[in-house]
Amino acid sequence: MTDNNPAQTWIIKSGSSLLTNHGQGLDQEFISKWVGQVVALKKENINCILVSSGAVAEGLNRLNITERPHALHELQAAAAIGQMGLIQSYEEQFKKYGIHTAQILLTHDDLSNRQRYLNARSTLKTLLGLGVVPIINENDVIAIDEIRFGDNDTLAALAANLMDAHRLILLTDQDGLYSADPSKLSTAQLIRKARAGDPGLIVMASTGTPGKFGRGGMLTKVKAAERAAMSGTTTIIAGGHRDGILQKIQNNEENTGTWLIPDSEPLAARKQWLAGHLQIKGSLILDDGAKSVLRNKGKSLLPVGITQCNGEFMRGEAVTCLDKTGKLIGQGLVNYNSEETRKIIGKNSEQIEKILGYVDEPELIHRDNLVLL
Known about the structure:
alpha/beta; Carbamate kinase; Archaeosine Trna-guanine Transglycosylase, Chain: A, domain 4; 2 domains; eight-stranded mixed β-sheet; five-stranded mixed β-sheet
């Protein structure tokens, strides 16, 4: 999102049990209704990024395999086959509304590597700006540990961190998180609202088990909510089969699942998250104008306000921002490496492409990736 874009961003994840009707092949009726709800959100100025399970389950269905295999190469083969049908289905459904989709295949490692983190963020922001609906899935075909222990709930939470999402919606075949397994205990109560990270939620979530074709379960959703809260994102665990569930969530209606609320406001939480993940690789010396803009106006750091670049760093690595006396102003993730930075410091952003032959971002450090100290 640009600095002037007021749109919210929602990460919306649907599980295999919903998308494949408990492993019986893609549920086109459900996908059609889900897509219709997403389109309605877009009309309300909500940017939607989908995180979609279902590739492995669809692949197994196409291969007439009724039990989820244990062998890694069999799972990867099923994912490769099923991904074709899954994306084709989304493309056809969104095309009815004149909306383009984009397939984004990631592993957890892609979002822990700082350079790839920024690349993914920039690409997703560009797609949203073009009105495209990105569809993220774990890259099961090449993932190793992820396909055994990973899950799309966690991937959705990482996407929420990546995009400063306002909401993380985890759609499941249950109405939300219960105090106990409702299939075993009739007195189990639906948890309406709680604090993300409450240790008691882990105990409640541990009573259930993952679905036959899925890798998650309620436990991964609770952990995902805790991770998403690091960037100030509110997580809602809700029943995907409920009519108009996304619009009910948008309207903050009661009885719309379990709402897990972060302790901090989004901006403050994200800054804390960034500050805890930075390994400093260099420093930038700022002129008085840039110092004032950062301190008083909360703007991004542009090349024109930098007088000196110290150290060697890659795109996506962390640097400190210092005033001309050496006093620390802040630190953040750079959009250009040290060699590129030295070429563009003191220059207007419009000159970047002429100097470098290309342009990634107009800012050297975007305000969302900058922590003032």
